[in-house]
Amino acid sequence: MRNLLIAALGIVATAIVGMTAAQSSLAGTWKGTATPNGGGAPISWTTTLEQDGTEITGSYVDAAGTTAQLTGTVSDNQVEFSMPFANDAEVKVTFVVDGDEWTMCTYTLGDQEGTCSGTRAE
Fold first, then answer.
1. Cβ-count burial of 47 within 10 angstroms (0-12 exposed, 13-18 middle, 19+ buried)?
2. Domains of the chain
3. Which residues contact 45 (CB under 8 A, 6 or more apart)?
4. Which end of the chain is more exposed for a tag (fewer CB within 10 A), N or C?
5. Is residue 121 a contact partner of residue 28, using CB atoms and an 8 Å limit?
6. Are β-strands 28-36 and 55-62 bridged in parallel, bridged antiparallel, or unpaired?
7. pLDDT tens per residue across span 48-101
């Protein structure tokens, strides 16, 4: 019985460490593209993220020099954040973190929608 309890505690500890590692995996610099659904050229961007528990903050800059600050949340590997811009426009982004990649990434800007992708910068 004691060995079973020790094994169970080991599994729980490993799961907690794994969840903590997954939640801390967003911090750093990410590069990617955003492509409007209605057509148009992809936009290259760089984002630097910081994470404190389930809260994320960071900065965004694209190839045209547009900048924004972002705030959002992460739950398991699901991420949502928003970026208000100077002209009162706000971009909302959702994606799944899969290792060093953003998958199932979509964004909205008013009534415009698009897809995005990101990878951790080396």
1. buried
2. 2-120 (2.40.128.120)
3. 31, 32, 33, 34, 60, 61, 62, 63
4. N
5. yes
6. unpaired
7. 999 999 999 999 999 999 999 999 999 999 999 999 988 889 999 999 999 999
